[in-house]
Amino acid sequence: MTTSKKKHALIMRGGWTGHEPVETTDSFIPFLTEHGYDVRVEETTAVYADADYLAGVDVVVQTNTMNTIDGDELRGLIAAVGNGTGLAGWHGGIADSYRNSSDYLQLIGGQFATHPAKAAPGELQGDATDNFVRHTIDIVPEKADHPIVAGISDFELTTEQYWVLSDDYNDVLATTTHPARDFDPWHRPVTCPAVWTRLWGEGRIFVSTPGHNLAVVDDPNVRTIIERGILWASR
Q1: Chain-centre distance of CA 86, in angstroms?
Q2: Cβ atoms of 196 and 109 closer than 8 Å
Q3: Dihedral sign of CA atoms 190, 196, 199, 204 in order
Q4: Of 52, 164, 174, 208, which is most buried, counting CB atoms within 10 Å of its CB?
Q5: pLDDT, tens digit, for every residue of 73-92?
């Protein structure tokens, strides 16, 4: 009788607490366990400098918004992905993690730029909901059979709509379009990637920009996409 090799997932979480890094990542631990992963949780990026440990990690699930990373830690993460460790995450926890590093931006393939407000400045409440807008996540028709989005139709969310700066090396699975409203400084609608994958060396990277907090992650479409994305990225 043969036995399957145990898989290993590293959850690396931290940064801005408004993105609920503990609550959102905790919600995926049962899923990972059910799929045969031993799960280790770390609260700092120091673990990325442990090359021997990372060599045995099948997937890193990261949510670490607006933080910094040391050079040896970043080099360790990039080397691990290049050698086959998967990297997956959502929202600012992966697309707005380490603003101090252009190398990280190149690895991920997309950087948060803004989340437009829902109304003109004089009409805003002055709280977090100012940036919660109703918008559509559009599945790219040519990618509709990709295992991460297969069977999922375009869907709407009321949350932050990320405007990301990106490049064409990404395999974009879903987009979102920012309209040009009378009070916006841009003059035409702008379409940005919302869900994408990226190949780096022997590794796979998955990014979902929806995922502001647990309420958004719990949307059935978002949760399905993230769960599938983690599995897809895994070694």
Answers
A1: 12
A2: yes
A3: positive
A4: 208
A5: 999 999 999 999 999 999 99
